[in-house]
Structure formats: structure tokens, C-alpha cells
Amino acid sequence: MRQSSSEPQESAESEKPTSADKIASPIIDMLARLHVLVIGPGLGRDPLMQDTVEHVICAAKDKGIPIVLDADALQLVQKDLNIVKGYTEAVLTPNVVEFDRLCKAAGVESSDSDSETQRVEALASALGGVTIIQKGKHDYISNGKITMTDDLEGGKKRSGGQGDTLTGSIATFLAWRKAYIDRLWNDPETPCLDKHEMIGLAAFGGSAVTRECSRIAFLKRGRSLQASDLTDEIHNAFMRLFGEIDDDDNSSKL
């Protein structure tokens, strides 16, 4: 091929994956090693890939693995709500447009008098307790029973790809949740947190870190801000929000 020859057409076609099962199999084999699964960023809408993702999600549900779904993975949910319905370990992070599409698919109707918190509660309830983060000027978080609003200041510009910081941050907090549930560390002086409550806290934590990253990055970059600039500010944002565990300085925001 380096001398300008081309690969035989029949050979090339025979090596292409022919089913979602075959593509999903090696991914499913890795699930036992994962604390959390993020699906959506960079996924695309190729039908074979979407079918593959459906297989992976079903396998992750069988193992009780938390799942964070964003971007093109939300289209999959929109087409078949049963993929996540009733799975309380799932977190969906739609923007305003994606949120409206999910509401339509779930048959959730709202009036102009309904607040944003009422709308996100209604969708989360319709999906059987899935945690929803409706991204926007403020982030609204609900599992249908417990609802929170993240109104921390963010940057004045939103860049495409910024949601990747959110999903990654949520996934990190959910991984720490798994470690907490497994008692990798134990604080006898602090009451144990409910594992379902911690999903909402992980969602809020991810939202807060992302908004703080955006705020700091915008102060430095202004209108030239890109999504990758948020990644550079994760440490600073985390420290401003939470501080060090053993630090006596109480200047953190949360």
C-alpha cells in the first residue's frame, strides 16, 4: 500500500464489523473494571454505533454501573426511553433543546406558568427516577423527588465541547461515590450518606466545577475562550469550591 497499491475491496469489506454485538463484546468485557461509564461525547449518530451503545448500556445496567449520558447518546434515549427508564444510576445532561426533545418523547407537557424546576422534576419522574441536569443559565438537577438549582456564576461565553467537562466531572464524583460505598475510607464521626442522594450530589458537584472552570477561564481568555481552556482550570476550580480536605482555610465556596 505504501507503493500506491490499494487494499482489495472484498478484503476491506470482510474485515468491517458486521454487528453491534461484535463491536460491543470487548467493551462489555471491560465493564467489570469500571466505576462509572460516560457515553455521548464524540459518539456520532451512525446507526451501527448507536446500536452498539445500546448493547453496552444494557450490560452496564445489569452490573449496576452508574452511567452519564450526553450529546448523541441522548438521541438514543429519545428514540427509546426504556433504555434508561427506571435506572436510578443514570444521569442525563441535556441542554435546553435536548431537554425539550426528551420531554416530547416522554409525553411531558408543561405550561408557561411552570418553573424550570417543575419541568425537570416532571421529566425525571417520567423516566422513573433518572437524574436530569438541564444545562442553561442555571443548571437544574432533579431525580423527580429531590431538586437542586446550581446558580453559581459561570463564564459569559459557552463553547462547544464544554459539556465534556461536565460529564467528566460528574463521572469523577460518581467514581468517588463508589469508593465511599465500598468504604475505602471511613469517617465514623460523619453520618453515612444515602447512595441515591449521592448521585444528586455528584451531579451538583460536576455542575459546580464546570461553571467555576468556565468563570475562571473566561476571566483569562475572554471571547477567545475554547472548551479546552476549561480543562486547564479544573484544579483551580476544585480548590476554590472545595479546598483541601485537611485545610483549615474556610474560604471555599461549598
TrEMBL record:
Region Disordered, annotated ranges: 1-20
Documented EC number(s): 4.2.1.93
Location, primary (coarse class): cytoplasm
Enzyme class, spelled out: lyase
Annotated compartments: Cytoplasm
Cross-referenced InterPro entries: Carbohydrate_kinase_pred_CS, CARKD, Ribokinase-like
Top-level taxon in the UniProt lineage: Eukaryota
Metal-binding recorded as keyword: no
GO molecular function annotation: ATP binding; ATP-dependent NAD(P)H-hydrate dehydratase activity
ATP-binding listed as a keyword: yes
Pfam families per record: Carb_kinase
Family classification: Belongs to the NnrD/CARKD family.
HAMAP family per record: NADHX_dehydratase (MF_01965)
Function: Catalyzes the dehydration of the S-form of NAD(P)HX at the expense of ATP, which is converted to ADP. Together with NAD(P)HX epimerase, which catalyzes the epimerization of the S- and R-forms, the enzyme allows the repair of both epimers of NAD(P)HX, a damaged form of NAD(P)H that is a result of enzymatic or heat-dependent hydration.
Protein name: ATP-dependent (S)-NAD(P)H-hydrate dehydratase
Organism: Akanthomyces lecanii RCEF 1005
